[in-house]
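Researcher: Let's do a round of design. I'm pasting the structure tokens now; please hold your answer until I've finished.
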């Protein structure tokens, strides 16, 4: 009897290890595949964002160069040095100056460095504040009546971040469901294997 029980236990362990190894291999393949899909989705999102930014910059630069003044029909002139000089004259930080124009501080930094050019709406807003005094501009800041493009861009950024988080969370949920199902299948197969082993041992005893 002790030998039979020892053989039974060894057989159960062997079958359990075999089933566990098979399930682990299958689960690893599924997790690897999900990681590849997630990485590919991230690459696609990054490519799309880069293309959108390039299109926006290209379109904004051409439109800014072709923008005309509403009053006289003349082209609105722009110079990075003018932006920096005007901001220094007002004694404002990039944050306050950006609030007046209705853009982000990073955009003002790009204008001053000459890396980017303003779009037509931002160009008109910048042209408008150039003709006003320091007191009037500070009153505008106090009243919160700066440009109107910044809230739109903030909403777009929040929407992009929400889409990214939703995609990542969805991929994580799918991986977790796959792992959970694999564990359940592995446990069921292990039980079935134990029952089969017990039946074989009992049948051997009867013979």
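Researcher: That's everything. Go ahead.
Model: Designed sequence:
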């Amino acid at each position: 009897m002790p030998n039979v029980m020892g053989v039974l236990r060894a057989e159960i362990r062997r079958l359990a290890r075999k089933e566990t190894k098979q399930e682990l291999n299958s689960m690893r393949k599924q997790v690897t595949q999900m990681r590849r899909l997630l990485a590919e989705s991230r690459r696609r999102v990054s490519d799309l964002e880069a293309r959108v930014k390039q299109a926006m910059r290209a379109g904004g630069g051409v439109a800014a160069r072709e923008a005309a003044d509403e009053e006289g029909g003349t082209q609105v002139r722009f110079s990075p040095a003018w932006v920096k000089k005007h901001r220094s004259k007002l004694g404002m930080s990039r944050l306050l100056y950006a609030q007046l124009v209705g853009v982000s501080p990073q955009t003002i930094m790009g204008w001053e460095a000459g890396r980017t050019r303003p779009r037509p709406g931002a160009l008109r807003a910048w042209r408008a504040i150039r003709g006003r005094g320091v007191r009037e501009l500070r009153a505008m800041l106090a009243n919160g009546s700066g440009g109107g493009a910044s809230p739109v861009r903030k909403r777009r950024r929040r929407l992009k971040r929400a889409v990214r988080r939703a995609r990542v969370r969805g991929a994580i949920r799918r991986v977790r469901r796959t792992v959970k199902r694999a564990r359940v299948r592995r446990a069921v197969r292990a039980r079935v294997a134990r029952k089969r082993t017990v039946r074989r041992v009992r049948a051997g005893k009867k013979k």
